[in-house]
Amino acid sequence: MHNTELSLTDLAENSPVCIEHDGSKVLVIRSGGRVFAYEDRCPHAFWPLSQGTVAGPIIECPGHGWQFDVETGRCLTSPAYCLKSVPSTVEGGTIVLQREEKSATDSSATVSHACS
Amino acid sequence: MRVTYYGQACTLTEAGGLRILTDPWLTEGAYQGTWFHTHLLADAGVRPEHVAKGIDYLFLSHEHQDHLDVATLKHFPSNIPVLICRFATTKFRKYLEVLGFTNIREVDSGQPLMLEGEVAVTIFSTAEYTNDSAILIEHNGVRMFNETDCKLAFGDLEKLSHLGIDIGFYMFSGANWYPILYDYPEDVMLEMVRLRRRSLLRSLVQRVKLTKPRFAVPAAGPCMVLAHDLLALNDERQGIFIDPEVAVRELGQSKLASHPLYMVATDVWDSDKGFEPHAPAALRVPRSEYIRSASERMAPQIAAARAAEPPAHSGLGDSLVKYFDALVGAQTESVRRKINAKLAFDVTGPQGGKWTVDFSLSNGNFVREGILPDWTYKIEVEDKLISPFVTGQEPFFEDLLLSLRFRCSRRPDQYNEPLYHFLYEPDPEKLQNWYAQH
Fold first, then answer.
1. Chain B contacts of A77, Cβ < 8 Å?
2. Do the Cβ atoms of B438 and A43 come within 8 Å?
3. CA distance A25 to chain B (A)
4. Is A46 in Cβ contact with B127 (below 8 Å)?
5. B438 touching A (Cβ < 8 Å)
6. Crossing angle, helix B383-390 and helix B316-329, to 10 degrees?
7. Is residue A47 part of a domain?
């Protein structure tokens, strides 16, 4: 498996996309000019969040309306949950989704955030 | 295949010589007198003793009173085959056994079960912690899907879409107490209700879009509230119980391939003939007008039912302490930490008092007298309403909350799902397993 790349210009603000990466579906979203990547799966009933609606920094699951903070992955509906972050960087005009074991250490370039 | 609708999630499916009845709630005034059908079944001439005749199989999706009505079930023979989903615990099955049913068939989720007449049923379990399920009935290439109140996993709905559903019955409304019973300021409440209704309708459209039935019927979820002190909950600005006609309109405006169908009690869908309206015209008047009339007509019955409610038993406080001490004490430390709540009860009435269940303690005495200043969830309720639940007379604590006859607050203003799970089914093993996986 390799890193997965997509062009930043293909990702409009607040218009999430789903891409295949490392055998999984990944939600990639640009919010406030920054890029975030998460497993594309709502932890509630496993709907693809990439088909959800986005309002500002919040994405709402199409299935049953669970809401998530795009920047942190934290579930706003049921705070016990959060989205699984996928390590990603922006290099030039390219978004790079990294394999788990090769997550970036360059904090300035890392644009995805795990819940804490 | 012929499907008759009897309100909420109740459908009679006739196919292959079999008559399968789903979730028969055929009386009024569920949940301590609060819940009535969207249209009173009596206005459509529906009587439980008539519907119960000649039924070959019952499917019961879950224990909620608007799906499993003890008064309706008394009209069925005790040996009728009852199909239920095999859940993580046997609580639901045991409840049916206590009601006297002797022929309960638990079916694994997603596994088709072949009945007589080449009729196949498949039961799907919810993705949630609750014990809830949906049913697919197939005969001769025709498929009827009844989602009931069940929130299925995306993968199960996707499978259904590949099979090809002819008619689907879908939950379309809120069926709980959030946010309507919380102590939000009026302007905040109105906005939350608006957003909640928007989200519920969006969810309906998405589930129909995903499963692609030929006909989509908004069916389960809402109730009509007729008690005068709760009438505002029917209001579209103040309540989450959506008018089925609004749901049909929403589906229509979404321009899906599915044909939205507004079915009222006794209406029929036939796979050969299509939709057959049978409900009287009186049921098709505007909802606000219907509710006003129904409330006036039912007022004497509601008043009589409330007057007949037994008082709280003496020693209610001791029962409440014992009830929660035992249930909380049975949980593992990690589950208690996960719940991490201070659940306060402000109980009014002659047997009333104030207590707080503190999940953060570990000394076996979890209930304190009084309301702790750092409570996180507070329930204000009448003594006579909570009394049967803390004595074990009523086995499902959520039924108290679904009565909508209480008020609540939470601090911080966040959903505590582990606390809800505990109140729903405090089975220590189930909770432990759930939180080991989630």
1. 415
2. yes
3. 14
4. yes
5. yes
6. 50
7. yes
> A2 falls in which pLDDT band (50, 70, 90)?
confident
* B127, B203, B438 member nearest A65 (Cβ): B203
In whole angstroms, what is the distance from residue A86 CA to residue A101 CA? 11
ipTM, two decimals, is 0.89
Q: What is the mean pLDDT of residues B30-57?
A: 97
Q: Which residues pair with B14 in a beta bridge?
A: B2, B19
Q: Which tens digit of pLDDT belongs to each residue from B289-338?
A: 999 999 999 999 999 999 999 999 999 999 999 999 999 999 999 999 99
Give the tens place of pLDDT for each residue, B95-145. 999 999 999 999 999 999 999 999 999 999 999 999 999 999 999 999 999
Q: What pLDDT score does A1 carry?
A: 57
Q: Is residue A107 part of a domain?
A: no
Euclidean distance between CA atoms A42 and A48, whole angstroms: 6
Number of domains comprising chain A: 1
| Domains assigned to chain B | 2-297 (3.60.15.10), 316-437 (3.30.1050.10)
The strand pair at A4-7 and A94-97 is best described as antiparallel
Please name the residue of chain A whose CA is at the shortest distance from the CA of residue B152. A45
- The shortest C-alpha distance from B155 to chain A (Å) reads 8
Q: What CATH number is associated with residue A62? A: 2.102.10.10
Q: Residue A26 belongs to what domain range?
A: 4-102
Residue numbers in B near A51 (CB within 8 A)? 206
d(CA B377, CA B357): 10
pLDDT in tens, B161-192: 999 999 999 999 988 899 999 999 999 999 99
Mean pLDDT of chain B, nearest integer: 97
Residue A110 placed within a domain:
no
Are the Cβ atoms of A44 and B127 closer than 8 angstroms?
yes
List of chain B residues whose C-beta atoms are within 8 Å of the C-beta of residue A63: 151, 154, 203, 206-207
Nearest to A16 by CA among A108, A99, A83: A83
Length of chain B: 438
Of A72, A81, A63, nearest to B438 (Cα)? A81
